[in-house]
Write a structure and sequence with these properties.
Helix content is 78%, strand content 0%. The chain is mainly alpha-helical. It has one domain. α1 runs antiparallel to α7 and α7 packs antiparallel against α8. The chain is globular and about 50 Å long. Keywords: Membrane, Transmembrane, Transmembrane helix.
């Protein structure tokens, strides 16, 4: 297995469940802590019920089930777990590598905050996360270009 596929494996496990990538990297305390935080936020925010309602198209039910005080923390934990697993697997050594992750977490959180009026917590949060990642990649590219100029 090449180093790049090893990094990808850790990232994909973290995408599946925050903390699993850390366990694969041998960072057991951090992995268990992230799993515990994910479970706490998931249960307190009713995230699984919200996901089911959202995927069934019942956005009003998803909004009613969501505890936004707790769900606001999920994008940050999720994005941090992915980034940290990648970094611990030997990735993220380029300049400004963390910028897309930070923007993804920030815009994902904004999506959750404003989702109670629009789209449901799951969909607007995901849209915000992907918009933040895209903007962060663009900003990273600009910063690298300015640095090398």
């Amino acid at each position: 297995m090449s180093l790049n596929s090893n990094k990808l494996e850790k990232v994909l496990w973290s995408v599946a469940f925050p903390g699993f990538g850390q366990l694969l990297n041998g960072k057991f305390f951090k992995g268990i802590l992230l799993i515990g935080m994910e479970l706490l936020i998931n249960v307190q925010s009713n995230l699984n019920k919200v996901i089911i309602s959202s995927f069934r198209g019942d956005i009003s039910e998803a909004i009613a089930q969501t505890d936004y005080q707790w769900l606001m923390f999920y994008p940050c934990i999720y994005m941090f777990a992915i980034w940290d697993a990648y970094r611990d697997a030997g990735g993220g050594n380029t300049p400004y590598a963390v910028v897309p992750i930070v923007f993804g977490a920030y815009f994902g959180t904004l999506g959750v905050i404003f989702s109670s009026d629009i789209f449901g917590a799951v969909w607007l949060g995901l849209c915000g996360m992907f918009a933040g990642l895209s903007l962060g990649l663009l900003i990273k590219k600009i910063l690298i270009a300015k640095r090398s100029a």
